[in-house]
Every structure is written in C-alpha cells, then in structure tokens.
Design a protein that fits this description.
single chain, alpha/beta, Rossmann fold, 8 helices, 45% helix
C-alpha cells in the first residue's frame, strides 16, 4: 500500500484531500495540531474502509517539524506522496506581526520554512519509494521577496507576509524539481482555488468564492495525474507564477538565506 502524508489535514481543504487519498487506496498520514479533530478525520476515513493515522505537530516550530519527520521515519520505510498543505493565512484585518517559536515571522515560518525542512528530512523516504510525488500548496497571491526585509520588521502587513511566503514556496518547488528531475520524484505547486470557504478566508474578512471541493480537485490532480515536474498550476491548469519565481539569481539568494535560517 502506498503511503501519503498531508500536512494541515484537520481542517479546510486538507480534510477533503485526506479522505480522497484514502479512496485511492493509500495509507493516509493525517497531520494537524488538534488531536480531537485529527482523530475524527482518521475515524471518518476508517469508517469508509480506508486506512489512516494521525500525527500531531506544530509546524510553527522547527523542532515541531523535526518531530513530525522523525515520527514518519520511525513508522514508515517509504513515503510515496508528500502534500505540504498546512499554512497560515493573512490573518484578521489590522492584525499585527506574529513570530514563530524560533523567532521568525510566522507566515514565513509555517508557509515556507516548515515545508522546506520537512521535505528535506523526508526525502530519503520519498527516494526509497520512487516514483514518488511532492505537491506544495501555494497561492495565486504572490509578492516579490523583500530580501532586505525578509522578516518584514520594517513594514508589515499580513497580506505581504502571506504572499511573500507563497512565492518563496513556488521558487523552492522549481529548484527542488530541477534537483530531483532524474530521480523519479515529481515536484509541483499550485493555487488550488480562489477564496475557498475556510476559516483562513473568513478570518481575513473575505467572502468565500471557491469551494474546498474545487481546491481538492486541483490538489488531487497533482497527486495522482500524470504531469511533468517543476510546474505551477492555477487550479487544474498550468500557469505562470510571478516573474521573480523564474529569476535564477533570486532563487539562489533565497536558497542561501533559507540555509542560514534552518541549518
């Protein structure tokens, strides 16, 4: 049986994707911070004949990321699919800057640094399972990375922090896909749907437009359909990310900065 890990699987689109992965006859590793909600997702999957287990971790802490990776490594020799879905939205209107347990700007930490570190730690399991896939859930909301103020200490807005973190994740996806292109691991990223009906969207004060079902359709497409590697999708279709994502010098700079933060 193939094994899939999806982060942020106890709410929003993550729950729907977890259930659909189980329908694909995968053992689903359900990640979240809330034990009760995680157990419910697992129970729902098992009640429908699927197989799942819950892994609790707080990805706002690099130690939490390491603990999650260790739990997966101890329980599973191979990982066929990794979906980096967990994320923090723009926050409530007017909310101030927040920091992670490690002192990083929160959206940078959860939306970018956490999936980078988790993927690095789980890469041996993905290589052992190859052909394997990595899906990074980004957003059409993107902003050029401010390398002179990456932590947004000088001038902060939740929107800027969110959009910058999502572009960073797209840039990382392109680099990782290139590094793994000859090792039978497909790596893609996407904007699943616009303003899905989720807590994150409602907290930001937006009226929902899309649905979690639409978002799940797009994520599942990259999880199971035959697609090339190193692509950004808007929903079900290949699209162009912000121009900086294709700037090789900017990506190299981001790699250096990232290494300094998580190594």
């Amino acid at each position: 049986m193939r094994t899939a890990l999806i982060t942020g699987a106890t709410s929003g689109v993550g729950v729907e994707v977890a259930k659909r992965l189980a329908q694909e006859q995968m053992l689903v590793l359900v990640h979240g911070r809330d034990e009760a909600r995680g157990r419910k997702v697992v129970a729902d999957i098992e009640a429908s004949g699927g197989k799942a287990s819950f892994l609790r971790a707080d990805l706002a802490s690099l130690d939490g990321v390491r603990a999650l990776a260790k739990a997966v490594q101890q329980q599973h020799p191979k990982l066929h699919l990794l979906i980096n879905n967990a994320g923090v939205g723009t926050g409530a209107p007017g909310s101030g800057r927040e920091e992670s347990a490690d002192g990083f700007e929160l959206r940078l930490a959860v939306n970018y640094l956490a999936p980078v570190l988790l993927t690095r730690l789980l890469l041996p399991l993905l290589l052992a399972a190859a052909p394997a896939r990595i899906v990074n859930v980004a957003s059409a909301g993107q902003r050029d990375i401010a390398f002179d103020d990456l932590q947004l200490k000088k001038r902060y807005s939740g929107q800027d922090a969110y959009c910058q973190s999502k572009l960073a994740l797209i840039m990382y996806t392109f680099d990782l896909a290139e590094a793994l292109k000859d090792r039978s691991i497909v790596v893609n990223t996407l904007h699943p749907a616009t303003y899905m009906d989720t807590f994150m969207v409602r907290q930001a004060g937006h009226e929902p437009i899309g649905t979690v079902e639409e978002g799940a359709d797009a994520i599942m497409h990259l999880a199971v359909a035959e697609e090339g590697t190193g692509q950004y999708f808007n929903g079900l279709r290949p699209a162009r990310a912000l121009a900086q994502a294709y700037d090789l010098s900017a990506r190299e700079r981001l790699r250096r900065v990232t290494a300094g933060l998580i190594d």
